[in-house]
Amino acid sequence: YVCIAMEALDQLLMACHCQSINLFVESFLKMVAKLLESEKPNLQILGTNSFVKFANIEEDTPSYHRSYDFFVSRFSEMCHSSHDDLDVRTKIRMSGIKGLQGVVRKTVNDELQANIWDPQHMDKIVPSLLFNLQHGEEAESRSPSPLQATEKEKESPTELAERCLRELLGRAAYGNIKNAIKPVLIHLDNHSLWEPKIFATCCFRIIMYSIQPQHSHLVIQQLLGHLDANSKSAATVRAGIVEVLSEAAVIAASGSVGPTVLEVFNTLLRQLRLSIDYALTGSYDCAAGVSTKIIKEHEERMFQEAVIKTIGSFASTLPTYQQSEVMVFIMNKVPLPSSQPSIEAGKAGENRNRLTQIMLLKSLLQVSTGFQCSNMLTALPSAFLDRLLSAALMEDAEIRLFVLEILISFIDRHGNRQKFSTISTISDISVLKLKVDKCSRQDTVFMKKHGQHLYRHIYLICKEESNMQAHYEALYSMLMLISIELANEEVMVDLIRLVLAVQEIAQINEDNLTAYNRCALFALGAAYLNLISQLTTVPTFCQHIHEVIQMRQKEAPYLLPEDVFVERPRLSKSLDRLGPEVFFWQSKISEVLGGSGYNSDRLSTPYIPQLTGTQHPGTSRRTGRGGNWSLALHSYGSVKFLCYMWASEEITYETLKKAIVDSVAVEEQERERRRQVVEKFQKAPFEEIAAHCGARATLLQSKLNQIFEITIRPPPSPSGTITAAYGQPQNHSIPVYEMKFPDLCVY
């Protein structure tokens, strides 16, 4: 009888005209509610089917008093059915999902109906759909957009829940995104679904592909806020959130990451610094426990790598100019000796600074890897390069290597980096299949502005004793990439001079380098000059380089990369007794290249590192700790070199206080003097003002007369008198500047 009654009601509902449907709906919904309250599954399903039919009817006149609160609650409850019979449980859950879908369709587009986007409704609808997604056979997103499902898939609560969730999110307007996403985050927290991260990633793929593209940045902001809220959660939870962020950022590339781009990176970098603190203390509340420290360090390292990967994912979605801004932003966060406030003292402070420097430079490397620009002058500001190069002179070998890799990623714009990954003296450069373009005008200007700065840092890095094979490989790649990407004739000459100066470092060994360091520098120079001679295509230059390499192969193979840059380097301790035939000579190179049109005067001048105007003092142990510099020029033989002397100046609290007080007193005196002058001209009689100005004019006239007499008076003749050309005394008329004018005519 119930089935017959509901069928009659359904037919009446379908036959109702739009104008009169409101009179009938209230009775109809009461009957549906009765069925849904029944404990019999068949009646619940029957009531749901009737409600779905009603939901598909479009109404012209809205109902102001109709409420769907009961239906949202009841359908959500059915979605969580735990009936003993699996088939019955599946049917009830699917009915619940269909009911929620009907409620959404009925209310989402009608502002006068109950607002389905209110948190009280979203907190029931979204978790119910996620619950059914979570209990599916495989939690993964099938496609970027909803596709037609087969009959078999329609029987699955998982597929039905996914379609319903996509439809719900697809209808979400700008102001409703937050209410729709918040229950997702809470559900993932409550059910600990961030750690495996598979289901969380699946959910946010569905979300990102379902919402309108211009709203993507709202989801990103929600995730960032949730990451901040979980800053003291387990590292695995935070890593899960960050990896979901990374996935979402890639999908959001087609839309927008949002207007607050730097805020995204600021949040990620803040989390990175917090993680470093957690790893050092071993606890989230800084009360370190010895038993958990190793586990925490391992987990935090995984989290840090996830953050760095996410920073790279975000940056890859940005245009070039914003990538440049992000790199400057990250570099400004790196604590350097030249920026004293960011450096912490003590052993713990040193560890924190070092870890922060490494992690931030890793992040910068991730961003720079995908950075492509045609004009390096505008893409890489001077302040950014200054800070980056100052980090290149730090004692930590790992930090220096990161800086070199970052510079290489900037310079390599044609994908030639991998072709120079191993250092060798190949006889034919054509096998490398290099992609070479003519140096542009912008690149020429860039090298004129920053070239000497780069050369100086390359030279000083070569003098570091802690350099390993990776450092020399990076230096080799950097030299070659500058030669290919940024070099004109002048740059090529400077690079050859630089490499010969590096050879001299190893030859003279004033820095007491190890045998490996010296052999590595010799091998680095040989490999570079071998390739650069083939690039210049000057036969006599190639011949000289080839002769020296052949001589080394016979007499000193330990000076070539094939013997040095191997797992077990073959070195020699008799480097101070080498003959002149195994060295590249500047005089010979300048002679052969000068004959081919290169600047022989510049080639024959030894390279001396210059301290450019953009260099910040205090970047390493070589340049002190910052302060006032006095510059002295010394000469030793034929070589001039710059010596930088430290001028110490004690600054105390009393000094600063006195400077502030004095400046205030001077300002007060100046203000009082101005007031008196203004008051005098406002109140003094005209005669007094005229007399004052006349006196000043007379004084000025006398000073001018003295100046003109000194500068214009002709030199005296030997006889002591000034004579004309014919020997007659010359009568001078009074010059205009010596005439006396009345006071009223003088201003």
UniProtKB/TrEMBL annotation:
GO terms for biological process: protein localization to plasma membrane. InterPro entries: ARM-like, ARM-type_fold, EFR3-like_ARM, EFR3_Homologs. Its main location: membrane. Residues 138-158 are annotated as: Disordered. Coiled coil: none annotated. It is a lipid-anchor. Keywords: Cell membrane, Cytoplasm, Lipoprotein, Membrane, Palmitate, Phosphoprotein. It is found in: Cell membrane; Cytoplasm, Cytosol. GO terms for cellular component: cytosol; plasma membrane. Belongs to the EFR3 family. Component of a complex required to localize phosphatidylinositol 4-kinase (PI4K) to the plasma membrane. The complex acts as a regulator of phosphatidylinositol 4-phosphate (PtdIns(4)P) synthesis. In the complex, EFR3B probably acts as the membrane-anchoring component. Also involved in responsiveness to G-protein-coupled receptors; it is however unclear whether this role is direct or indirect. Component of a phosphatidylinositol 4-kinase (PI4K) complex, composed of PI4KA, EFR3 (EFR3A or EFR3B), TTC7 (TTC7A or TTC7B) and HYCC (HYCC1 or HYCC2). This is Protein EFR3 homolog B. It comes from Phaethon lepturus.
